[in-house]
Structures are given as C-alpha cells and as structure tokens.
Amino acid sequence: MKQCLVVDDSRVIRKVARRILEDMEFNCAEAEDGAQALSQCQKTMPDAILLDWNMPVMNGIDFLKALRRESGGDQPVVVFCTTENDMGHITEALRAGANEYIMKPFDSEILNAKFSEAGLV
Amino acid sequence: MQTENFQFLADLLMKKSGHLLAPEKGYLLDSRLGPIARKEGVDSVDELVRSMRTRNDERLNWAITEAMTTNETFFFRDRTPFDLFKAEVIPHLVENRRPGVKARIWCAAASAGQEPYSLAMILREERTALRGMQMDILASDISEKVIEKAKAGIYSQFEVQRGLPVQLLVKYFQKDGDMWKVDPSLRQNIAFRTFNLLESFRTLGTFDVVFCRNVLIYFNQETKRDILNRIAERMAPDGFLFLGAAETVLGLSDAFEPVAGKRGLYRRKQMAQAKVA
Ligand SMILES: C[S@@+](CC[C@H](N)C(=O)[O-])C[C@H]1O[C@@H](n2cnc3c(N)ncnc32)[C@H](O)[C@@H]1O
Does the CB atom of residue B120 touch ligand 1 within 6 A? Predict the structure, then answer.
C-alpha cells in the first residue's frame, strides 16, 4: 500500500481527505502543520503528500522547499490542496517542486483525477 | 407522464437528434424539461408536451431536443485516446502528408470544448514532433449552448480540475474572476460550429482524424451504422477514428477496424472490398 501524508491544520479536512484516500487504497498519516510534517518525513518519506498552504508554525510552501532539500525529499509526489487559487500561488508552488495542485473545495473526483495526473494511481 | 406524451417526445427526439428515449430514462424529463415548461408558463412537463402536440413550434422543438442532450465532458477524458493521438497519429501524419498540406481533425461531438482544446494543447506541446505540419480542428456539436461555451473558452474552477494537468492550466489559461479562460492562441486553429450528425457531411470536407466520442451511445444501431459509414466517406484512406470507451464499430461498420492493442482507436479498412456505402 502506498503511504500518503495529509498535511492540513483543519481536522475536518484531514478527515475528509483521509476517507477519500483510504478508498483509493492509500495508507494515511496526518500532520497539523509544516513542521510536524517535516519531522514525520525525516523519519519515513511517504509516497505522496497532500499539502495545505496556510498553516501555523510552518506553512505549506516553506515545508515544500525544506522537504525538497532533505535527502530523499525529491521522492514524494506533492499535491497542494488549498483555497489559494490564483496564478501567482500556483506558479510559486510549481517552482518550489509541487507535482499537482488542487484548488479547494475539492471532492473525491478531483482528488482522484489529480492523483492520477501526478502518476500516483 | 402520459404515454401519448412520452411517445410524442420519443418520436420528436428520434427525428431531430436521433436519440433514443428509453422509458427508463423518463426520470430525466422533469429535471431537463422543467425549466422550459416554466419559461413557457405551464405547470408541468406533461402540460408542456400536450401543448406542443397541438402547435408545431420549431423553436420549442429544438429547445427541447437540445435540453435532452447530455453534455458531460472533461479535459483529456480517458487519457488513452490523447496519448495515442500523440504517439500514433502525429508521427503517422508527419510521415505521410506532403509538406505544406494542413491535416484536419474533426471533433464531431465536441460539447463545451474540452476535447478540441485538449487536442490543441497537444499540438502546441508537440510542436517539434510536428516538424512544421499544421493541423486544423473542426469542433461541432448539435447544441448551440455548448458550442457558444466552447467558443468563449471560459471554464469553472471545477472544470479545469477535471483531467487538466496543472502545468497545462498554468501555460494555456488565464484567470478571469472566478473563471479560467483559454489562451486565445489555442483557438487559432479551431473552428466551432453547430452541426447535427444526422445531416449530410458533404459540406464538411475530408478529415485525417475524427474524434466521435461518447455520442454514438445515444443512437440506435441503424443510426450508429449510418453515421460511421458516412464518417468513413469523409476520411482519408489512412485516417484515424477515435470512439468513446463504451463504443465500437464491431458489428456496425465494415469500413473501420480496431487497431490491435490501442483502445478506442480505429482505422479505415484498407481492403478494396470494404463496404462504405
Ligand atoms: C457526452 S457528450 C461527449 C463530449 C465529448 N466528445 C467527450 O467525449 O467528452 C455528447 C455530445 O454529443 C452531442 N450530440 C448528441 N447528439 C448529437 C447529434 N445528433 N449531432 C451532433 N452532436 C450530438 C451532445 O450535444 C453532447 O454535447
């Protein structure tokens, strides 16, 4: 089973995402912010990361930049999942090494489509 | 709905768009025709149809035919056909067309434009492989509403997240309020028009590639066969036909054969005895 780390400061969003991802046969772990996510990745790199942008402690884009500098940090497929939906944020995310980008609100169809575009399913 | 009214609608659709109205699809009638009934100032769809039976209002007949079309579509739908277009069709045409001759693609049920725009994006991405070859796209659909939308090239956030890789979104779309607008340069090689597949194709010219996806499913066997055979007449002898995942030529037309191992892709039969008429 593939591992997916769900990073979002909203418990509700994490729960919704987790339910969809488990239906897609991912094994899920959760983190509430970028800092937590980074320390989890330093222990084991997941196959995929679903990543919110605005979070306390460390936001999504700073986490992504830090992740890509870690050893093995180029491996996880990172899919942003955020309410930020303007061109500026999307291009910044891609430049920082994001593989796909979901604009909230999302549903299982979009999550499925984006994960398959990113080569995860 | 009263049986006579249902039958009237079924006959109307068969005549106008070739669609089968199966009794089990009756549940669609209220959601699709309800808005028209309200606009016409009658209380129910039954009432609407009853009044249609007494006056023969062509405008209303078309509004109803259009409302009964299913326009579901998305970018790079099913992906495989687009991969095959890139991997099989483009190299073949580059190899087999004289320099300077434009190749022509027909999206015969283009809906709101996601299919032709997906092709237009591939053509841009594959510029090197095309070695200067130009391809024009004719995007047509029976529904004026979807063709207007296709022409405008404006999609919701939901629509641009179905099938469209974010890299292509960034490259070929601009944000416009809450909506996303296709870069005008993508439209350069696409002509949009309303066109009913029941009409003669003679005015359309000939094509190297035809996308006729997820529309045959609405027709009866006879209409499917007729449309496939008439498409064959409009196609280059070495042309390519793409059908939807639930569609086939098998048992319908001798003019095409499936390409082994390439799902959804069909070629004109090369044999002289292939029946095209
Ligand atoms: C389900 S959509 C498929 C769109 C696209 N080809 C795809 O695969 O995503 C079917 C389209 O066929 C169009 N259509 C139905 N009957 C037609 C007819 N007789 N002539 C032309 N288009 C027709 C409908 O208006 C609708 O937009």
Answer: no
* Active-site annotation holds for B141: yes
CATH superfamily assigned to domain B80-268: Vaccinia Virus protein VP39 (3.40.50.150)
Neighbours of B259 (CB within 10 A): 15
Residue B271 is predicted with a pLDDT of: 60
- Per the structure, the count of domains in chain A is 1
- Whether B275 has a pLDDT exceeding 70, the answer reads no
Q: Could you say which architecture CATH assigns to the domain B3-68?
A: Orthogonal Bundle (1.10)
Q: Do the chains contact at A85 and B157, CB–CB below 8 Å?
A: yes
* Distance between B148 CA and the closest CA of chain A, angstroms: 25
Q: How far is the CA of B110 from the centre of ligand 1 (A)?
A: 6
State pLDDT tens for residues B130-144: 999 999 999 999 999
Contacting residues for B271 by C-beta, under 8 A, at least 6 apart: none
8 Å CB contact between B110 and B192? yes
What is the domain partition of chain B in residue ranges? 3-68, 80-268
Tens-digit pLDDT profile for residues B2-34: 899 999 999 999 999 999 998 888 888 999 999
Determine the Cα–Cα distance for residues A31 and A39; give it in Å rounded to an integer. 10
The verdict on whether B254 is a catalytic residue reads no
